[in-house]
Specification:
It contains 11 helices and 15 strands. The chain has 2 domains: 63 residues, 2-Layer Sandwich (Alpha-Beta Plaits), CATH 3.30.70.1140; 256 residues, Alpha-Beta Barrel (TIM Barrel). α6 packs across α7. The two termini are 42 Å apart. By secondary structure, it is of the alpha/beta class. The relative contact order is 0.13. A hairpin with a 4-residue loop joins β2 and β3. It binds phosphoenolpyruvate (PEP) and manganese (II) ion (MN). Phosphoenolpyruvate binds next to loops.
Amino acid sequence: MVIVMKPGVSQEKIQALVATLEKDHGVTVGVTNGVGCSILGLVGDTAHIDMDKLTMNDDVERVMRVQEPYKKANRKFHPEDTVVDVSGVPVGGGAGFAVIAGPCSVESEDQIVGVARDVKAAGAALLRGGAFKPRTSPYSFQGMGADGLELLLEAKADTGLPIVSELMAPRYCQLFEEKVDLVQIGARNMQNFDLLKEAGKLSKPILLKRGLSNTYEEWIMSAEYIMAAGNENVILCERGVRTFETYTRNTLDLSAIPAIRRMSHLPIVVDPSHAAGMYWMVEPLAMAAVAVGADGLMVEVHNDPPHAKCDGAQSLTPDKFAHLMGKLNPLIELMGKKLV
Ligand code: PEP
Ligand code: MN
């Protein structure tokens, strides 16, 4: 962190600030006296220093961070890729490509077991299905709740696929700890800090979706919350962000993959379904995600999209999903990876 002092601030005042910074924050401060002003360089762990408070000091012109405010998620302090183990399925690490597939919501035993069999046969490694649904309207289907998790467990018993489902509130943490293999934190809850802290206490890995309008740094800071609370197994999921474009549901931000790769060691997967909002756009976006280096995909698949209780328009039929997997496979190999 660098603090630029206002012109003309006395050396006594500067030394007093240096002493306070060193005492209160355990950092070492180097002072450079320029022609018009002095610059303080803070060395040490500055992540916990509140920049705004320093800016309030009348003698301070400007405060700049030279280091990112995230530590545990930062690639600088952890150069190798993290591989997250989801009940035996490795996600991340550059060699494997993990496909998560399944319906937006669990609707019935037949539906979820049938889709689980189909997506497994096509090459998916993990089964998704929402049981607690974050819906824009309180009058829309809210999910089957705990019963939905039981049906996911039946599909898991039938196919062996580990299950992924969204945790919406801290009160369900224990339930998810017991039942779910990969705990999803949805876009709308990306900055629900209480939920993130509780997710950090779980032993299960977390799939952290990017918020509707959040920057890479805000997203990584949310991963940092989970990691700081003790759970270092976090997978990031780019699912499109809000832009001025209304043709698509969201705009898939493919730049996120190389950017996050540079900023963090955590695995990153892409959800083309929620990004596009339209089933026919899922295939080209999924291909692009592979090409840009994602560690995997999350794709919505429904046995009867026109009658789906949630997100039917963006869901692939099992046939279309199998076709997509056939097209992705050579591209995954070209990238030097293999389906896990
Ligand atoms: C979902 O995965 O079904 C979902 C609600 O996604 P998002 O949080 O990205 O909108
Ligand atoms: Mn959905």
